[in-house]
Design a protein that fits this description.
- This protein starts with a strand and ends in a 5-residue tail after the last helix.
- The chain has 12 helices and 14 strands.
- The protein has 467 residues and is an alpha/beta fold.
- Helix 6 crosses helix 7.
- Helix 4 links the parallel strand 3 and strand 4.
- It has a domain of 278 residues: Alkaline Phosphatase, subunit A, CATH 3.40.720.10.
- The protein is globular and about 60 Å long.
Length: 467
């Protein structure tokens, strides 16, 4: 089979229409989702680029990578079956990795080893869009593959990673849309140690309201609430927000940041739409499987940080899109509610390409779920992330999310365990741990036990022992 995968690095699920966002325009991705199977609870096990690439290529031995994350020694590992042995195990090397990203977001060298070809469609300085080079090269690339019956075409873009190339007219359209609801993920200041307010977060789609009048904003954040977009008063996009802490009380900066990101997402959707049209023109909507996913969700101030500053494993960071369009739109519109994780991408690719997935791996082929033949094999999802001298682990079940900081940097305020009710508190605003201490302790014991099991599996895997 032909498989075409799009890795939209930095893309949070909550910014796409397929995952309930009705504020940001993503018509092309929405159409794709209507023709595809959407995995509703695709939760990262380690939301950072290197770990995601390891999972996608089946190079992660642990069910959940606990801190410290093991990232060294990977170049000595054998390539995945669909790379090292060729598609279908027939010795072919029809695998192409397309780098439509800037060099500073490249993965480690081992990620590029073993592919039949690494094709560069990198952004050029004089391009009007970071994906213009890909749009130019894509038709000829598809022409080269016209008579190839089985291949993997993997396309990576960092379009959603700052600094952003923002089209001014698209950004201004979001400034002018005064009736648009607030960006999903907006939160008001909440003391996470207090009891929750029963009147907020009534359902999964609810978005907490903020004061109508903005707080005093910093000089760096022009007001976007009633901004004129005339030529002499045009508001520039917040194109390069710094990674680090973010003041959630600064509503002007919040609007500026989120409306900028909305414009970037909408422009990316339009560019993807052009690529999807090329695929359809060549009949690849009938003969190929398409997959769309992401490595992590880029935090945009929802819990007081921009980017990968602290490993706080909230919804916006760990909930990723995963959409699988099968040939001829088989099982179009199906939604899979069970937990899936990035390690499942590897055995799914193997299954699509007719290549056997190694036994003992921690992932599962998603084809039975996509076809409605089986439920998810996971009753919960575990996430772990280490950033510098901070680390956190998290457990998500069908009705709860527990976040536990295992190491807090010196100078940071203490971060007690956080417990959220799911799916009601979608954006994880109301910490209910104080009223549910026994439940929180039970979940934390379960989480730590699972992390310990993963450590033992990883150690045995490194020694070459059977899983």
């Amino acid at each position: 089979m032909r498989v075409i995968a799009f890795a939209l690095n930095g893309c949070p699920a909550g910014w796409l229409g397929a995952y309930g966002n009705d504020w940001v325009g993503t018509p092309h991705l929405d159409r794709l989702a209507s023709e595809a199977v959407t995995f509703d609870r695709h939760i990262s096990d380690c939301p950072e680029p290197t770990a995601a690439r390891r999972a996608w290529l089946g190079r992660e031995g642990n069910p959940s990578p606990p801190p410290p994350l093991r990232r060294e020694g990977l170049p000595t590992l054998a390539p995945p079956p669909f790379l090292g042995e060729g598609v279908g195990g027939r010795g072919s090397s029809t695998t192409i990795l397309v780098r439509a990203n800037h060099p500073d977001t490249d993965g480690p060298d081992w990620f590029y080893a073993g592919w039949g070809e690494v094709f560069d469609a990198r952004p050029q300085a004089d391009d009007t869009s970071p994906l213009e080079a890909l749009l130019r090269a894509f038709p000829a690339l598809l022409d080269r593959l016209r008579d190839v019956p089985d291949y993997l075409l993997w396309i990576e873009t960092d379009r959603l990673i700052p600094p952003w190339d923002v089209q001014q007219d698209v950004f201004e359209a979001y400034l002018e849309d005064e009736e648009a609801p607030a960006p999903e993920g907006r939160v008001e200041e909440v003391n996470e140690d207090e009891e929750p307010n029963d009147e907020v977060a009534e359902d999964e789609e609810s978005v907490l309201e903020v004061d109508e009048e903005p707080h005093d904003s910093s000089d760096s954040a022009p007001s976007t609430r009633h901004s004129s977009t005339s030529e002499d008063e045009a508001v520039p996009p917040f194109a390069d927000p710094p990674t680090g802490p973010f003041d959630r009380a600064d509503l002007d900066a919040w609007d500026w940041l989120h409306r900028t990101f909305a414009a970037v997402v909408t422009k990316l959707d339009a560019e993807l739409g052009a690529l999807f049209d090329l695929l359809r023109e060549r009949g690849l909507d009938r003969s190929a499987a398409w997959l769309v996913t992401s490595d992590f969700g880029y935090p945009l101030g929802e819990h007081g940080q921009i980017g990968l500053h602290r490993p706080w494993l909230h919804e916006e960071l760990v909930h990723l899109p995963l959409v699988l369009r099968l040939p001829n739109a088989e099982h179009a519109g199906r939604r899979v509610p069970g937990f899936t994780q990035p390690a499942d991408v590897f055995p799914t690719l193997c299954a699509l390409l007719g290549s056997a997935s190694p036994t003992g791996g921690r992932g599962f082929s998603l084809l039975p779920l996509a076809r409605g033949e089986a439920p998810s094999a996971r009753a919960f999802a575990i996430t772990a992330l280490e950033l510098g001298d901070a680390a956190e682990i998290a457990l998500r079940t069908h009705d709860t999310a527990l976040l536990v900081a295992t190491r807090t940097p010196a100078g940071d305020p203490p971060r007690e365990p956080l417990l959220y009710e799911k799916p009601d508190d979608r954006w994880e605003v109301n910490n209910v741990r104080q009223g549910n201490i026994d439940r929180a302790d039970e979940l934390e014991a379960m989480l730590r036990e699972e992390i310990q099991k993963s450590v033992h599996r990883g150690e045995r895997s490194e020694r070459g022992e059977s899983q």
